[in-house]
Protein: 3-methyl-2-oxobutanoate hydroxymethyltransferase
Amino acid sequence: MKRLTVPAIQRRKVEGKTEEPLVMLTAYTARQAQILDPHCDILLVGDSLGQVIYGLPSTLPVTLDMMIAHGAAVVRGSYHSVVVVDLPFGSYEQSPEQAFATASRVMAETGCAAVKLEGGAVMAETIEFLSRRGIPVMAHVGLTPQAVNALGGYAARGRSQEEHAKILADGAAVAEAGAFAVVVEGVIEEIAIALTQSVEIPTIGIGGSARCDGQVLVTEDMLGMFERVPRFVKRYADLAGMISDTVAKYAEEVRARTFPGPEQTYQPK
Ligand code: KIV
Ligand code: NA
Structure:
């Protein structure tokens, strides 16, 4: 199977409508990517790996080197999905030139097809700069976790008139600037509906209601691997529970000297 392309993703939305919603999940490792890849359209190497993989308190301390190492692993582990890599906090906000230097390194060193950055109207100039120079950009509006200190937390956005209008303006600005898709995180459904109807590019919701053109979740959240999850996460499995039960059994057998058994033990021929 040939790998999907960014234009193919964008073409999934025709005249303001997406027949079949886009499926996106985060991936941070090669093996994880391999397992998810056949089921997804887009794999996102999210800077959420800061909390999920590294135990950091937020995405702010995530470095470009981390994103490149995990991005390259996910590209190696996938053959079908479009791989998008998050630009980490501090690596792109200063200027379009800074963003280009960062994004071109990410693309050259990982082999990913696109980058994602947070911000709406304020990032429009940068999005245009990158997309015109061969770097497809996925934008991210609404609840933008890199701005947690300015937002004051991870609460859903858009409940006031002012915020509502700002998020719609952000979505319009990134679409106008040439983003090929936009993640809409943690917003009330009205906003997701209005944005999805008003922009030409696919909207990908996370806590953005079923009315977006696609959905994304943090894989560890939906698998039940991460302890604290927001309301918008549906837990499809309890992998943490399964792993804990499995490891308890291993520990018990090691302590009882019943593992390794004869099948796992070498003998002379
Ligand atoms: O970092 C991430 O995982 C993300 C998605 C949740 C959209 O940005
Ligand atoms: Na992110």
